[in-house]
From TrEMBL:
<protein>
    <recommendedName>
        <fullName>Solute carrier family 35 member</fullName>
    </recommendedName>
</protein>
<comment type="similarity">
    <text>Belongs to the SLC35F solute transporter family.</text>
</comment>
<feature type="transmembrane region" description="Helical">
    <location>
        <begin position="171"/>
        <end position="191"/>
    </location>
</feature>
<feature type="transmembrane region" description="Helical">
    <location>
        <begin position="326"/>
        <end position="346"/>
    </location>
</feature>
<keyword id="KW-0812">Transmembrane</keyword>
<feature type="transmembrane region" description="Helical">
    <location>
        <begin position="67"/>
        <end position="87"/>
    </location>
</feature>
<feature type="transmembrane region" description="Helical">
    <location>
        <begin position="352"/>
        <end position="371"/>
    </location>
</feature>
<dbReference type="Pfam" id="PF06027">
    <property type="entry name" value="SLC35F"/>
</dbReference>
<feature type="transmembrane region" description="Helical">
    <location>
        <begin position="262"/>
        <end position="282"/>
    </location>
</feature>
<keyword id="KW-0472">Membrane</keyword>
<feature type="transmembrane region" description="Helical">
    <location>
        <begin position="107"/>
        <end position="126"/>
    </location>
</feature>
<feature type="transmembrane region" description="Helical">
    <location>
        <begin position="297"/>
        <end position="319"/>
    </location>
</feature>
<dbReference type="InterPro" id="IPR052221">
    <property type="entry name" value="SLC35F_Transporter"/>
</dbReference>
<feature type="transmembrane region" description="Helical">
    <location>
        <begin position="236"/>
        <end position="255"/>
    </location>
</feature>
<dbReference type="GO" id="GO:0016020">
    <property type="term" value="C:membrane"/>
</dbReference>
<keyword id="KW-1133">Transmembrane helix</keyword>
<feature type="transmembrane region" description="Helical">
    <location>
        <begin position="198"/>
        <end position="216"/>
    </location>
</feature>
Length: 420
């Protein structure tokens, strides 16, 4: 379905006003400009930028398009590629965790602590350099509690999911993990004003169908069957972990659409270290007694940390270019990659249903974006029509609008840049 044009590109005039401030001199005394001049100029620039973004987005959306137009864009393939890279990261962390569990090193909270520490070490210096100390402390004062909630949801989602796999079988845990997609779609609809089209719902259901084929194959081959140690407790932990994951994904999408990625990841690392450190000190103390500590364990912990850090660093890109729903359905292929890697590492055998399941999930993602806007899910409804409340960062619709406005000469070069 082609999008009907709203504002023709030729109707937009240059939107940046030419502000000139004259300073009169009398003898040797120079009269300073009015104190509110900077505020007025800043407001004028903000209004001009919003108008430029609106004109740029209108120009992009009014171009002739077909139902498959978005599928031909580089951004669509970037969403698929980044999503599969994230799935491989998840598969790698699961593999390293399996290695650790195989030698009796079961320390779910402690092993994730290094990931949050690495995030803080990488992104905090960048944030301080970009913001400066004064602005950074103002962000802590204003938004610190929000970042604490985001970190808490993320840490506990990781922790309860790991606990679930201890007590229930993998089949039950993965089936319950579908609940995270339900949470994402529901919360996005209720809180973020996202309105899903029928094709998007169909795409999500098709992806879930592909995951169902994966689970059916595993059940047939006996890979994830069996009786868990405490099925009821494990299922409840899995349900709680999936809920926390869903809420944290929606919350993070809201954050990275409004704030720079380096700021979000730095606070996620800082508060994650604090929360996870306390949790590890309380719940992992007894696990240290029977754990194995040698060179192999150290190598597995390093591999786990690097893969998980890469996962956290790339996740904001897909949350900006796509959405929390796209993020979650992309991760459904992690089981497929897990078996492929398992054929080399653990001696798994690829069942004939696995390639079918993988194709179904990818087809579901294609269907999700059919007949949608050329901007895909990067245009966030909670940021307004001109995305004024958002950040002009990598993958955002606001940055695309600014670039289109610059291309048409509607805004000066460099306006709105410098926000990652």
């Amino acid at each position: 379905m082609a999008n009907e044009p709203t504002v023709p590109p030729t109707a937009a005039a240059p939107v940046l006003p030419k502000t000139t401030a004259t300073v009169e001199t009398y003898g040797t005394t120079t009269s300073p400009p009015p104190k509110d001049l900077d505020l007025r100029t800043s407001a004028s620039s903000s209004d001009a930028e919003a108008a430029a973004v609106a004109a740029g987005l209108s120009s992009l959306e009014s171009r002739p398009s077909t139902w498959y137009s978005y599928l031909l864009t580089a951004e669509f393939w970037a969403v698929i590629a980044v999503g599969q890279l994230l799935s491989l990261c998840i598969t790698a962390t699961n593999t390293f965790t399996t290695f650790l569990a195989g030698v009796g090193t079961n320390i779910p909270a402690f092993q994730t602590l290094f990931n949050y520490a690495l995030l803080a070490l990488i992104w905090l210096p960048i944030t301080l350099r970009k913001h400066g100390a004064r602005k950074w402390f103002s962000v802590v004062w204003r938004d610190g509690w929000k970042y604490f909630i985001l970190s808490f949801l993320d840490v506990e989602g990781n922790y309860f999911t790991v606990l679930a796999y201890r007590d229930t079988n993998i089949l039950s845990a993965q089936l319950i993990n579908f609940w995270s997609i339900v949470c994402v779609v529901t919360l996005s609809f209720l809180l973020l004003r996202v309105r899903y089209r029928l094709l998007q719902i169909a795409g999500i259901l098709l992806c879930c169908g592909g995951m169902g084929v994966l689970l059916a194959s595993d059940h047939i081959t006996g890979v994830n069957g069996g009786q868990g140690a405490n099925m009821l407790r494990g299922d409840l932990f899995a349900l709680l972990g999936a809920t926390l994951y869903g809420v944290s994904n929606v919350f993070e999408e809201w954050f990275v659409s409004r704030r720079p990625v380096y700021e979000v990841l730095s606070f996620l690392g800082i508060f994650g270290v604090c929360i996870n450190g306390v949790q590890a000190a309380i719940f992992d103390r007894t696990s240290f007694e029977g754990a194995t500590w040698d060179g192999k364990v150290a190598g597995w912990l390093v591999g786990y940390t690097l893969c998980l850090c890469l996962f956290y660093s790339l996740a904001p890109l897909i949350l900006r270019m796509g959405s929390a729903a796209v993020f979650d359905v992309n991760l459904l292929t992690a089981n497929f990659w897990g078996v492929i890697i398992g054929t080399r590492v653990f001696g798994y055998v690829v069942h004939w249903m696995y390639p079918i399941a993988f194709v179904l999930i990818i087809c579901g993602l294609v269907v999700y974006f059919l007949a949608g806007s050329i901007l895909g899910d990067s245009k966030k409804p909670w940021l307004g029509a001109s995305q004024r409340e958002g950040v002009a960062g990598v993958g955002t619709a606001k940055l695309k609008g600014l670039r289109e406005a610059r291309r048409q000469g509607l805004v000066g070069a460099g306006t709105g840049e410098g926000q990652a």
